Amino acid sequence: MKELLMVRYGEIFLKGLNRPYFIRALVRKIRYALRGTGSNVWVHDGRILVEGYDDPETVVERVTHVFGVHSVCPAVEMPKEDFDALCEQAIRMMDGLKGTFKVNARRSDKRYPMGSPEINMEMGGRILDARPDLKVDLHHPEHVMNVEIRDQAYLYVRVIPAVGGMPVGTNGNATLLLSGGIDSPVAGWMVAKRGVQINAVHFHSFPYTSEQAREKVLDLARKLSFSCCGIKVHIVPFTEIQLQIRDRCPEEYSTLIMRRFMMRIAEAIARKTESGALITGESIGQVASQTMEALGTTDAVVSMPVFRPLIGFDKSEIIDIAKRIDTYELSSLPYEDCCTIFTPKHPATRPKKEKVEEAETCLENPEQLIADALAGVEVVSV
Ligand code: ATP
Ligand code: MG
Question: CA distances (Å), 274 to each of 67, 141, 175, 220, in order?
Fold first, then answer.
């Protein structure tokens, strides 16, 4: 008898010709998540199995956070020939469970001497003999004793839900504008969940923003990198651009102009890293630079799609996800972001694109500013 973990993946995405590609990608990501645990991850009979670990809790915890995993089932594998032994094992696995149950047998080995209904009846009867406190409920059971008869028999009761989504890398790359705030890590996580490899850009305005602010962003990227399978963070020196905007441009448009520069630089980095889109943590109306008109003026400077997965979320909903993905505490550390320095007293909330463009002409050589920022980029892999 052997204990192992059966990994279930979302069925919807597995139809058609992409299935083997998807499974291979998922296996790679599970192996990555389990490195150092001594586990062996392999595909057998169309299923992903994990075995050979000492610490099941750690393995379950890690696998349930891998994008593409729908649920995991701690199972036992044993020889199928001895039906008495299967029933004894099933009774052991029902230990501690209360309420109603049913047995659900499936048989891919059609030569097995018992049919599925017969296994259900016989095993269900024996469980009831051993556990008269339990009741059978065929329609809405609290527990299902699953029995799969394949080359071996597999038994499992517990189904532990996992994060879902698709394996990272199966849907291309995108570049996340990562601040030290609450929103952008959540936005990156949501897009990564859909199978997208994340690449991050952070704008840093030293000495107006501190060394701790930079470290905080790297720590956030490290947190995300467990689910996102490693992230490259591009740290962009942004001080000169911010100072010039502060000194030369009309104050009411300064935040918008700053955001337009962020988008231009992020797009240049995105192209270099073969990203197909930009991602931001904006949501409609959250601040002056996130009104519909303001978002329109920031989008106008890039030709790549901009993904804003939080666009319709309230702050409290974003905070709930941040807590769930464990970025909230880090995000709440009180270090200044470059968006919060030099903020105008009365930012334009319904800016016209032409007005912002005109305000931007106060800058002498914007191309050079962008080129200098790009030349100073530092890349940190986390
Ligand atoms: P967040 O919690 O993500 O910081 P926020 O509510 O503070 O969001 P803003 O400061 O207006 O919002 O920023 C909007 C978006 O712009 C962020 O979600 C992020 O994607 C991007 N952004 C802001 N500041 C930076 C930065 N310093 N580096 C990279 N991206 C940034
Ligand atoms: Mg912010």
Answer: 21, 49, 9, 23
| 195, 165 contact by CB (below 8 A) | yes
Angstrom distance (rounded) from CA 276 to CA 310? 19
Over residues 86-107, mean pLDDT: 97
User: Is the preceding peptide bond at 20 cis, omega within 30 degrees of 0?
Assistant: no
Report the predicted TM-score, pTM, of the whole model to 2 decimal places. 0.91
Mean pLDDT of 11-27: 80
Residue whose C-alpha is closest to residue 280's, from 344, 197, 187: 187
Find out whether 216 and 330 touch, Cβ atoms under 8 Å.
yes
pLDDT at 14 over 70: no
> Is the CB of residue 88 less than 8 Å from the CB of residue 178?
no
For the stretch 204-223, pLDDT in tens is: 999 988 999 999 999 999 99
C-beta of residue 184 within 8 angstroms of C-beta of residue 178: yes
Question: 279 CA distance to ligand 2 centroid (A)?
Answer: 13
Tokens of 220: 């956030």
Considering only 7-11, 31-35, 250-254, 272-276, which range has the smallest mean pLDDT? 7-11
pLDDT band at 138 (very low <50, low <70, confident <90, very high): very high
Beta-carbon neighbour count of residue 104 at 10 Å? 17
- CA-CA distance, 177 to 174, in Å (whole number)? 10
Q: 75 and 155 in contact (C-beta within 8 Å)?
A: yes
User: How remote is the CA of residue 102 from the centroid of ligand 2, in Å?
Assistant: 51
Q: Give strand pairing partners of 233.
A: 200, 380
Assign 328 a pLDDT band (cuts: 50, 70, 90): very high
Q: Residues with beta carbon inside 6 Å of ligand 1?
A: 177-179, 181-184, 201-203, 262, 280-282, 286-287, 289, 337-339
Mean pLDDT of 289-299: 93
